[in-house]
UniProtKB/TrEMBL annotation:
It comes from the Eukaryota. This is SAM dependent carboxyl methyltransferase. The keyword Cytoplasm does not apply. It holds the Pfam family Methyltransf_7. It comes from Corchorus olitorius. InterPro entries: MeTrfase_7, MeTrfase_capping, SAM-dependent_MTases_sf. GO terms for biological process: methylation. The lineage of its organism: Eukaryota, Viridiplantae, Streptophyta, Embryophyta, Tracheophyta.
Length: 156
């Protein structure tokens, strides 16, 4: 990147200091419950579940700022957490479930099975999202994103 060049990024983030709070792991919790359900139905081998590990981290704004400063190649020109109203973004719980599938299926399909198993898994995820919408769980209604503009420092 050229000196004084800029990069803009938008990532999922969290407001709380708790790295495993509901706002950070909601989607993965849904997947975990759905996978466990398919294990209980005999559609996924329990050994596959036990051997699966997907380390996921949703950072806070403070963590991003600290990492940028520690790495040292960039300055932060702008950084802000945004609450995204998901009801407006995804018009239905089914649309939200499709989003979950879009980002997670490439990460988990190699571990848990063919298209038939994946279809059953995401059908279960869809059912759970529909129920969460009916109960108006806060984690189904909002998402937190971090927007940052970083400027490449000049090197001498």
């Amino acid at each position: 990147m050229a000196p004084n060049g800029r990069i803009i990024f938008i990532i999922n983030a969290r407001k709380s200091d708790d790295p495993i709070g509901k706002e950070s792991i909601y989607f993965w919790e849904l997947l975990s419950k759905a996978i466990s359900y398919l294990v209980s139905q005999g559609l996924i081998d329990e050994e596959k579940l036990d051997s699966f590990n997907a380390p996921i981290h949703t950072p806070s704004q403070d963590e991003v700022e600290e990492l940028v400063k520690k790495e040292g190649s960039f300055t932060i020109e702008f950084i802000e957490l945004l609450d995204i109203d998901l009801v407006g973004v995804w018009s239905s719980p089914e649309a939200k479930a499709k989003n979950v599938r879009a980002f997670s299926e490439p990460l988990i399909s190699h571990q848990f099975g063919d298209k038939n198993v994946m279809d059953k898994l995401y059908d279960k995820v869809t059912q759970m999202v529909i129920e969460d919408y009916k109960m108006q769980k806060p984690e189904t209604m909002k998402n937190v994103s971090l927007v940052a503009v970083l400027k490449k420092k000049e090197t001498h």
